[in-house]
Amino acid sequence: MTTINGIDYGPIAGLLGTWTGNEGTDVAPEPDGTERSPYFEIVVFSDVGIVTNAERQNLAAIHYHQIVSRIEDGKVFHNETGYWMWEAETGTVMHSLHIPRGVGLIAGGVYKGETDRDGRIVLQVAAKGRRSRLGNRSGAVHARQRSHA
Question: CA 38 to CA 146: how far, in whole Å?
């Protein structure tokens, strides 16, 4: 796996850096039909280091912040922050995220070496629990271009 400054970040190491994209389309149901809004986004991933949980679990952690804005007017419509974590001992990947509408999520899974046909690492995490009636958003992951800021 990938070690940075002596820390094994495993399969999440490739996230580090600044990622940008401008080819997404938000699809949202509206009372008068479906609204489609092209958007651009920026996601910044930074290393946190090792986080120890209950003096037994060592997690390599990466913090991220994602801002998504409409191309039409530049207005932000999605602001998300969270962590990707790797536990090398068990091969577990965890993802926690929060958005400022009172929504938070924790998901996890075991990384088994999956890659796509281009050799890129595929991370699969899932969350279990009760769905909130306050709002649920689902969407596709869009290709992003990485740049170093």
Answer: 19
Each residue's pLDDT tens digit, 25-79: 999 899 999 999 999 999 999 999 999 988 899 999 999 999 999 999 999 999 9
For residues 81 and 98, the answer to whether their CB atoms sit within 8 Å is: yes
Structure token pair of residue 128: 């279990």
C-alpha span between 111 and 7 (Å, rounded)? 17
- CA torsion sign, 17 to 20 to 25 to 29? positive
3-class SS of residue 111: coil
- What phi, psi does 14 have (nearest 5°)? -65, -10
pLDDT-based confidence at residue 4 (cuts at 50, 70, 90) = confident
**pTM across the whole model:** 0.80
CB atoms within 10 A of CB 146: 14
Helices (H), the chain: none
